[in-house]
Design brief:
This protein has about 290 residues and is α/β, with parallel strands linked by helices. About 35% of the residues lie in helices and about 20% in strands. The protein is built from ten helices and twelve strands. A six-stranded mixed sheet has the order 2-1-3-5-6-4, with helices on both faces. β1, α1 and β2 form a beta-alpha-beta unit. It is globular. The mean pLDDT is about 95. It binds 2'-monophosphoadenosine-5'-diphosphate (ATR). The site of 2'-monophosphoadenosine-5'-diphosphate has 14 residues, from α6.
Amino acid sequence: MSTHPKIYGVIGNPISHSRSPLIHQTFAQQTGIPLTYSAILAPLDSFAATVDRFRAEGGLGLNVTVPFKHEAFAYCIDRSERALQAGAVNTLIFSQDPQAPARGDNTDGVGLMRDLAYHGIELTGKRILLLGAGGAARGVLGPLTAAHPANILVANRNGETAKQLILDFGAGPKPQDIVTLCACALADFPRDEVAFDLIINATSASLSGECPSLPDTVLQGHTIAYDMAYGTAPTVFMDWASARGARALDGLGMLVEQAAESFYLWQGVYPQTELVRARLRAELHSS
Ligand code: ATR
């Protein structure tokens, strides 16, 4: 067996902020699997060429981040059910032969579900509000639906995109037969809506320091407000929710859990995530 470290990485633009190298190097140390994992900046117009070069140099797998998850989907011929459902790929798996077709998977949905479970959040029979209708929302709608909440309302700045997302889901295999899926524009958000059990911010608003505008009635003390974004400080959405008595969580755990699932796809070994969560949290607090 070769003792050369296996080659992995994360590809995006921008990419220098990515915590994935730290996470995967920690998983590698923990499991004793020799590998390298680096951050790769792809020019906006050269995703496929950059991936081809990485494979030609012996690369065996890539995580894919903004803005390339759709291009990664198009790059693959062999796609997992999860990738097909999300319409996006965040994990590429290559064989030793650079000419062989790449396999594409999506671990974002399972990452969210594992983090919700980690925080002891039950979904069965619950009322969920999903904010956003872009790639991030699409990636988690299937697993959320499969957890049998009572209903999911998708609210997006552009209401038509939210409606389209629901329609696309209606076309697939559906555990949602028993889950009510609805969609609306944020601007037309129903004022008489009863408070939700879980609100997930899957918009990219936090990245620009903004918060989707919602009536205060969507929250009560029992509501959990989950932002897929994370940073050195709570996001505006988290602050908005906390100020109204809700429990606010960021997406750091989801990041770690989706990484663990990618690691498992590549190595066949499931790493422990607790240590990495603590290490990352400490790093964020000190920066
Ligand atoms: P991602 O892959 O992160 O989901 P995306 O596909 O570009 O990125 O989707 C971004 C999502 O954030 C969209 O739902 C977008 O709303 P529109 O469809 O109306 O564009 C939402 N979004 C971005 N900025 C927002 C803001 N300031 N307030 C509310 N929603 C916002």
